């Protein structure tokens, strides 16, 4: 075993664990937390936690406040505007390329997943399991556009912003009770993708992201 790779592995595990607990709402926006509390959450060594703090601060997920400790990022108007603007810039270009290059099989899979989810939501009362599944389908479609670029630099930057977007969703407008309109809106985007018209697809994803941004800002 190459021992030189172990510290890097611990850092990545600590980072992944932190974001996982953040998205699971074990850690809440605005909450103060100590390094030792993060050790307890992640189950990883204090050294690994100390090493990821500068990264979390640089990414805007954590702020160190003198005499008070570390604070999880607030969900405020500025964060919402900036996160959605970043998402719009990234996804417009990604969707334009995806429309031209995605295989028919991938588009068919996206349609099938959304139509099946919509049919389920229309035929039964919502359950936490159904809403969790719908949320995963929602996020996965957007991730698919970025992943298709095959660009690691873009993927990493998008991942950080994606964590912020998902925090905003959870704090401002969870999918609970909204599965049907979300699936319908996504199907409109998928129809635009199937047209193989990049401009039409860009306009569709722009409307979708702008609708989500407005919803986040008005609550």
Automatic annotation (TrEMBL):
One of the Pfam families matching this protein, by short name:
GntR
Sequence ranges assigned to domain HTH gntR-type in this UniProt record: 8-75
Question: Keywords for this entry?
Answer: DNA-binding, Transcription, Transcription regulation
Among SUPFAM superfamilies, the record links this protein to:
GntR ligand-binding domain-like, Winged helix' DNA-binding domain
Record's keyword annotation contains Transcription: yes
PROSITE patterns membership: HTH_GNTR
Q: In the UniProt record, does the keyword Nuclease occur? A: no
Name of the protein described by the UniProt record: GntR family transcriptional regulator
What are the top taxonomic ranks of the organism? Answer: Bacteria, Pseudomonadati, Pseudomonadota, Alphaproteobacteria, Hyphomicrobiales
